[in-house]
Amino acid sequence: MKVSSKTIPGILSRLRARFRGADLAQKYASWELPLRSELFSSEQMKQHGRALAESHQLGLGRAPDQLLTRLAENEEVLIGACTLLTDAVKANLRIAPAGEWLLDNFYLIEEQIRTARRHFPKGYSRELATLAERPIGGTPARV
Question: Residue 107 belongs to what domain range?
């Protein structure tokens, strides 16, 4: 079967090649664990925040300016996912409920991206303190 760039498998193939080439999955997924734990109440969140803050040491340097770059990369991935999902729907293929949610609510995500671009000036990341320890040393501390 020949895979056209217009078919769902073709689109998937292009996305995989693009992510592999940019190595985005490896770049970001290496230290970010999936969000799978139970949701905290407001009080539990406060306690967890305190415990987390106490477990870290601040680094001496400043964070690299990566916030807006990372935002643009994430936007590109989300647009690619929406394109893929839209093409699947047009081809009468079933998509997961999470995919339906993304398509139904993508306008909200786009709005938040625009808000972040408007309110986070270039160089904002460099103003944040960094964490000293690994595996996320050099990451903005957000204190």
Answer: 62-143
